[in-house]
Amino acid sequence: MTTLQTPAEGSGPRMVGAPPFPHPLVIRPHDERVRIYVWQVPVRVTHWVTFFSILLLVVTGAYIGDPYLLPPDGSIMRAIRFIHMVSAFTFLASGLLRLYWLFVGNRFSRWTAFVPVTASQRRELIKQIGWYLFVRKEAPRVLGHNALAAGTYTAIFVLFLVQTVTGFALAGMHGTEPWATLFGWVPSLMGGVSGMRLIHHLVMWVILAFMIHHVYSALLVDHWERNGLMSSIFSGYKFVTRGEIEEARDGGMEIEELAE
Predict the structure, then answer these.
(1) 3 state SS of 181
(2) Using CA atoms, how far apart are residues 140 and 128, in angstroms rounded to an integer?
(3) Distance between CA 20 and CA 7 in Å, rounded?
(4) Number of Cβ atoms within 10 Å of the Cβ of 80
(5) H/E run at residue 223
(6) What DSSP designation does 241 have?
(7) What is the C-alpha separation between 244 and 30, in angstroms, rounded?
(8) 106: DSSP letter
(9) Is residue 146 part of a domain?
């Protein structure tokens, strides 16, 4: 138990009419904050690589679809397409690394943290929805992704896959190999080339909308929980109480306390 001492009454000057000195503030072990390692390096790296890749893909893809600002002469369009393809390969490499980490990462990054495989996760999903709908006063305790957020990320991963397949299929429409051979079957599943372009375009807007909501919700939860959520995507660490660790569905004893 840690006690923060306050000045004893009479130990110094006090203003006339001031309230008496409060009792010493007692911090119980249950309320003590500790540092816990949540997001491993591959998770943080793929997060930011994916983010910047998407930004480049959106800007260059918008230009390829509807050239703006600069005349679409051969050299400019070739440069834009080159940047787009490099960004696509970077995005794909980041996704493959994150996919691999779904099977070898810690309990916060494994696939079991995203798919509600246990009854506690399914109950948590209902409770989390109730909290967002203002039906419940408190959100379920969780150190990593809550069940609702994890389900949303899983859906986004599927959209990433759709965007990747349609993107390489569009590249193959120009006769670029090996994409023309590997993804030549895609247009027939999506109503032709125009349908595939439409799906590729609409998915881009869905991903952008998700990114805006993702940033907003992260700022909101960081302010609400005050556990270093925003900084954790840079450092990997959250700062939570021992009580929260005990109550959390994904709690555990992998704790590194802060240096005094």
Answers:
(1) helix
(2) 6
(3) 10
(4) 19
(5) helix 192-225
(6) E
(7) 8
(8) -
(9) yes
Using a 10 angstrom Cβ sphere, with 0-12 exposed, 13-18 middle and 19 or more buried, the burial of residue 126 is middle
Strand stretches in the chain, DSSP E: 2-4, 25-27, 33-37, 237-241, 255-256
Number of domains in the chain: 1
Q: Is the peptide bond before 178 cis (omega within 30 degrees of 0)?
A: yes
131 domain residue, yes or no: yes
CATH number at residue 226: 1.20.950.20
Tell me the residue range of the domain where 236 lies.
Answer: 33-256
Q: Which one, of 200, 104, 214, lies nearest residue 153 by Cα?
A: 214
Question: Residue 1: what pLDDT?
Answer: 47
- Chain centre to alpha carbon of residue 55: 15
- Cβ proximity of 143 and 38 under 8 Å: yes
Cα 200 from Cα 205, distance rounded (Å): 9
| 51-60: b (≥16 Cβ within 10 Å) or e | eebbebbbeb
Distance CA 97, CA 247 (A): 31
- Residue 259 has a pLDDT of 36
- Give 184-218 pLDDT, tens digit per residue: 889 888 888 889 999 999 999 999 999 999 999 89
Conformational region of residue 69, where left means phi above 0, alpha means psi within -120 to 50, and beta covers everything else: left
Would you state the structure tokens that stand for residue 199, as one six-digit string? 């799906």
Burial 150-159 (b: 16+ CB within 10 A, else e): bbbeeeeeee
Q: Is residue 66 in some structural domain? A: yes
Please say whether the beta carbons of 95 and 160 come within 8 A: yes
> Per residue in 30-87, pLDDT tens?
678 889 999 999 999 999 999 999 999 999 999 888 887 666 677 888 899 899 999 9
Identify whether 26 is part of a domain: no
